[in-house]
Amino acid sequence: MTKHTKSHTYITEILHHQGEQHFPCNAVSPPIFQTSIFCFDSYEAFQAALADEASHFLYSRGNNPTVNLCEEKLAALEHAEQAKLVTSGVSAAALAVLSQVKSGDHAIIVEDSYSWTKYLFETYLQRFNVSYTFVDGSKIEDFEKTVQPNTKLIYLESPATFTFKLQNLREVAVFARKNGIKTIIDNTWATPFFQNPIDYGIDIVIHSASKYIGGNSDIISGVIAGSKKDITHIFNTEFLPLGPVPDPMQAWLILRNLRTLHIRMPVHYANALALASFLEKHPAVETVLYPFLPSFNQYELAQSQMRGGSGLFSFRLKTRNLSAIKTLTNRLRYFKRAVSWGGYESLVFPAAVKYADTDKIPDDRISLIRLHAGIEEKEMLLEDLEQALNSL
Hints:
By secondary structure, this protein is of the alpha/beta class. The chain is 37% helix and 15% strand. The chain contains 15 helices and 12 strands. The strands form 2 sheets. A 7-stranded mixed beta sheet has the order 1-7-6-5-4-2-3, with helices on both faces. A 5-stranded mixed beta sheet has the order 8-9-12-11-10. Helix 5 (115-122) links the parallel strand 2 (106-110) and strand 3. Helix 3 (65-77) runs parallel beside helix 10 and helix 11 (261-281) packs parallel to helix 15 (378-390). It is globular. The two termini are 40 Å apart.
């Protein structure tokens, strides 16, 4: 992919050039403005900044030149008017959600969302009398039959965690707008390189920038993108009071790592597709969950709203023997056993590892294994996976 469909802006123009025309001393690399405060030439300028912190450099808890450059690029990548960088993906989800609900409101959330996002609805928001309903989300009817008079928010994650179920973003956006409901989506899996939900009418897009946007497993960060109105509202009502402030060095690392997004993502995609296709044919494997496999039950939808896929997918073994799951996990040599994903490296995360050995593990989880295909040579990854499977 060389161009963004909507804006016809080259992705490398955004990643390598946008906002970089006037660096001090003609620097090639973005400077790090490691300062907590900014001073003013006059009383009047000071007064104006205090009256509108969202539009001025006053205190790096609000705006900072390095952070703002990063936000400008992320907004452009997501076809959004504005973006706000925050300290983690969880912060991005929390601030976006909190900005749209109040006591007495109801929200609809897809049931396979990230565990900490589910915690936000199941536990945290219960303290403030915000109700919720989990839905499968695969069909528009899931939302239509769940909506209530006080529904103010629909929270999406497409593809969803571990199961990679999709939601039809066009249909959900039309339904939500018709009913005066705000929509938020976690777009971390696809990245703005492969999917732009705002083009389909979704209001707010969030990311765990710790994943592909960071791309090096060396930062924790999050981003919220949307209209100027929505981001300004989040800045004033959630971001400034709660203070999940990204430091300039964090923003600089994201800026550095963003420059290779268009190079990294196609390799993750090609490696994941090769691994998923191999697993689908292996006699020890029951099923593979990857949206860009023709066997995936939402394959056509994946093709219609994404330009490609990332490196993360899951598969189920035919066995339900926990010892076999452990053996496979331990025999892998090049897939690191770790949480998260989105860096250069390949990872393995068996769903069963979240349970104690004495727990009764649900049947749909005990043999479920999540893989992240990094950007190593795919032949090496295929050989490693094959030898581990053959050990069973």
